[in-house]
Amino acid sequence: MEWLDALKGVAIIAVVFGHSLLGYTENNAFGEYNDFFFQLKDWIYIWHMPFFMCLSGFSFSLAYYRDNKVDTLKVRKQILNLLLLYIMFSVLLYGLKISLAMFTDNKMSLGDALLNLFFPNTIMWYLWVLAAYYFILICCGKLVNVIAAKPWIILGFLFFAAVVQKTSENIVSWRLCFGNFTRLAFYFCLGIVLSINRDKLKSRRKGLVAAGIAVVAVHCIYYVKWTGTYRVFDSVTNEFIATLIVLLMFEAASVYHGRCGLPPAIGRASLVIYLLHTYMVTAMKVVCIRMGLCSSLLMDVVVVVLSAVMPIAICYFVDFVRRKNRVIGMIFSPVGFVQIK
After folding, report:
1. Which ranges of 100-141 does DSSP label H, i.e. alpha helix?
2. pTM to 2 decimals?
3. Closest alpha carbon to 277 in 50, 80, 14
4. CB 65 within 8 A of CB 257
5. Banded pLDDT at 337 (limits 50, 70, 90)
6. Which alpha helices (H) appear in 103-232, and where do they start and end?
7. What are the tens digits of pLDDT across the range 239-289?
8. Contact by Cβ (8 Å): 97, 108
9. Are 53 and 191 in contact (CB under 8 A)?
10. Consecutive H or E run containing 60
């Protein structure tokens, strides 16, 4: 589906931009504008992984759910694929973090690396959580049918769980794997529901869409400029905004007619981009900060854009090569069953 690849492209671009902003703001690289970019990064973080996980749920239903049954054999092979990718790239990431500690913000010891391998607190959490969702869905064979039959009940409960998880972050130190497993289950199941009911979601309500865009725009301005103390209702608001953005993205995709081939092309490379971009974003950050390139608002914007665009371009080239070379291709699909197309 071209439109689904386009949505994946938008999602992975948001992920890379968010991580690019994270590296610079953690180092106070933007001076007087650092608070602005920090708030912008936090706003992107509200919705970029919920959107990505919703697409994962949609793709799961599309690929493995047929005639009210989950194809458990295919799902088992994909779980193995995810776990092998997780182990390989986790070992690579932790090895680089330990050996190149002088260039990293979050130092890691060997003990931290071993703990992270079982319970990730780094970017690798996504593969861990996705494999866990897949495992639950094949162990509870009728769960997808329950989600399809009673979507409002299931989604209502999981939305409540997401709000509780985000609210509790002020008093509980969640590891990323457990916190995101709890919060993003709502969005994964939302993706399943959207996929199952995709033929019923074709009606377009331009007035509601315009109102939704206005709400998101107001929230973005409010969030980026507001620096007050945390309040509990913000968790509810943020989850609502994340859900609204996801639905607006799907609505936008419903009118997508391939006017621009770039988002789908990036979307098809989203796995490779997700696995590799963090190394390049970190390298760009180190170089730009040491060269003192963040010297004005204009240069700050240029640096952030380049720190996202260049890793995406390099990863896209790697994805192109792995599609032509079977040996390199096996690195990103070790089981050899599920091909990212």
Report:
1. 110-118, 125-139
2. 0.92
3. 14
4. no
5. very low
6. 110-118, 125-139, 143-149, 151-168, 176-196, 206-225
7. 999 999 999 998 888 776 666 678 889 999 999 999 999 889 988 998 999
8. yes
9. yes
10. helix 34-64
Distance CA 188, CA 170 (A): 24
**Amino acid occupying residue 241:** I
- Reference 18, options 264, 243, 304; nearest CA is 304
Judged against a pLDDT cut of 70, whether residue 233 lies above it is answered with no
Phi, psi torsion values for 65, nearest 5 degrees? -115, 110
138-146 — which CB contacts under 8 Å span 24+ positions? 138/70, 138/72, 138/75, 138/76, 138/79, 141/70, 141/72, 144/61, 144/65, 144/70, 144/192, 145/68
Angle ∠(84,87,89) on CA atoms, nearest 5: 105
pLDDT of residue 28: 92
For residues 334 and 159, what is the distance between their CA atoms, to the nearest angstrom? 34
Cα torsion 65, 193, 263, 279: sign: negative
Q: What is the mean pLDDT of residues 92-113?
A: 80
CB atoms within 10 A of CB 80: 15
For 300, counting Cβ atoms within 10 Å of its Cβ (0-12 exposed, 13-18 middle, 19+ buried), the class is buried
Task: Please give the pLDDT value at position 186.
Answer: 97
Q: Rounded distance, CA 225 to CA 221, Å?
A: 6
**Contact (CB, 8 A) for 316 and 273:** yes
Helix (H) or strand (E) holding 48: helix 34-64
Residues in the chain: 341
Closest CA to 53 of 114, 130, 165: 130
Per-residue pLDDT tens for 119-146? 999 889 999 999 999 999 999 878 999 9
Q: Which residue in the block uniquely carries the two structure tokens 């240029």?
A: 302
pLDDT for 330 equals 84
